[in-house]
Fold this sequence. Notes:
The complex is a heterodimer of chains A (244) and B (408).
Chain A: H1 2-39, H2 42-73, H3 77-109, H4 117-143, H5 146-175, H6 181-213, H7 218-229
Helix pairs in contact in A: 1-2, 1-3, 1-4, 2-3, 3-6, 4-5, 4-6, 5-6
Chain B: H1 3-14, H2 17-27, H3 38-44, H4 47-73, E1 77-82, E2 87-90, H5 92-98, H6 105-119, E3 125-130, E4 136-145, E5 148-155, H7 157-192, H8 197-229, E6 236-239, H9 240-258, E7 261-265, E8 271-274, H10 276-292, E9 299-306, E10 312-317, H11 340-346, H12 352-362, E11 366-372, E12 376-383, E13 386-387, H13 392-395
Parallel strand pairs in B: 7-9
Antiparallel strand pairs in B: 1-2, 1-5, 3-4, 4-5, 6-8, 8-13, 9-10, 10-12, 11-12
Helix pairs in contact in B: 1-4, 3-4, 7-8, 8-12, 9-10, 10-12
Amino acid sequence: MDEMRVEYHSEMEQLRADLVRLGAMVSETIGRGTAALLDRDLHAAQELIDGDDAIDDFCLDLEDRCCRILALQSPIAGELRFVLTTLRLIGELERSADLMVNVCKASRRIYDVNFDPQVRGLIQQMGVEAAFLMRSAIDAYVDSDTSLAAALDDIDDRLDNLQTDYVEAIFESHHDGNLNLQGAVQMAMIGRYYERVGDHAVNIGERVIYMVTGWLPEHTGSARQRLRDHPGDQGGGDAAPPSE
Amino acid sequence: MTVLNVVLVVLAAAALGTALFALRQTRRPDPPPAEHHPAVAAASAPAEAAAVAVDQTGRANQLVGHLSAALDRIPGGVVVCDASGGVVFRNVMARRLAEARDSQVLVAAAVQDLLVEAVAGRSVQREVELFGPPSQSYLVQSVPLGDGGLVVIEDQTQDRRTDTVRRDFVANISHELKTPIGALGLLAETIRGEEDSEIVDRLASRMIAESDRASRTVDDLLELTRIEFGDDTEFSEVSVYAVVAEAESRISAAAEQAGVAVQVGVPAQLTVAGDRRQLVSAVFNLLDNAVKYSPRGSDVVVSAEVSTTGRLRLDVSDAGVGIPQRDLDRIFERFYRVDRARSRETGGTGLGLAIVRHVASNHRGEVTVASIEGSGSTFTLSLPSVSGGHSAATASTDQPTSELRMST
């Protein structure tokens, strides 16, 4: 039994380490995808699109291991939340990598479009912000750092603002005749992809808070709904943020 | 895992001639009883055997200490595992990689994979390219050992960069010199059979322009070489303000033509220990660059201050096109061009920023750049040995008062 416990704990540790590895793989794709887009590097774009298979494969392996732990070890309390959170994070990270694949695919479609310097600068900054958010989200997960996890939402505002500026710059570019409508639409989609990567990082932060405290932002809304359904009831027991 | 085993694998890992030799010397005379626990030895043998065992263990421990210290100082990562794949040793660099959370995690992951290969008796090489930023490149190799495995990590980032710089330099210098010379030859050939004076006139002025271009490149190359060797560097107390003023007066005609205003905000009393000529050349090149890439009607701002660490910080900011991220760490290379297509119309030699970098290093300082495409760039020249920031009276004596019009 003791030996099984040791193995169980090292499995959990390996799971944590491999999620960090997955996070690093995804952060890499953000930088690489942004460079492929700005440098008009079709080869690098194709490499990233092909490389997504390896990420998907790794995600499946991780998911499999989470399920095995759940089925065979029946973790409880904090350990259960850790495995559940890891399971959720795999999905968030996998989706983020897919978004960078979308960026690369879009960059092939707008190969002939000339970017204004301002647009280029904004794409670069969105890439930096998105990668920073992703790294911070992984840091929060590894350190079980709820304050960093909670701050991700605010940090994401910077990316959202950049995206707003970016869309405006595209309008301007289109207005000046440097960008046709098709190009403008593709470019706007690219901005949206970056913005979504940031949202996934924020989701990771929320799940990390859940891992540590058992509370999710959705609990607040859920409590409201319960109050509407049963007006006499004074709030659900699990709705309030726990007092640590 | 016994101490002796660790010694053996670490020894193999070291593969450093001296370490190997030293260990052979200590091991050859007697069989290795280091794995005997002193207590066991004492129970089964006379007291002197126990003493020998203790002595052996002590020496083995000492050796492990020496070898791991030696491995910590080599410029590479070393990971050693036993026959079951369990890591028994990591040197400093390998530990740092194993604890990383950013993209370096991927190097640690490659190490993990290759340990399996090493234990299976296979020698495998894998290159890991990290985009970063900063971009890094590692070579990870597995080496099978008798009963275990070894993985060696080599950081190739610097080598790669040097190779690229060298290759690009050769390509660029031949381009920069050959283009005007080739043009001169062709123009001369055309002019020889030409009788229409108007065409001769036009061709001749093209020849003058091309020869100007070639001679500017050669001049800059000569200046760069002189600064690079730093032979005639003469250090004296130089007024920062006077340096900036001289550079500004040299650029003013070009700035006016480009419709760019140069704003100078340098405290009059600041001085720095340096070579006046070189410093003027550095500031001029920064201004030249800023003016060239600024849109008409915008400002180039020069400011200077003493930083909290006591260094001089001189900023030259423009509101120009900016520099793409991937070029930021390369623009100080000789002849490096962000946009080759534009280089002819701006008319620079491609050496200006290289000159700035060499002047900075001659003064034990550095030049850095921050830029956002579409918003502009700021070049920062940072130099040590500032004085006069606090004692204004002594510093402002060597400059004519007429130049004070530029101070803020």
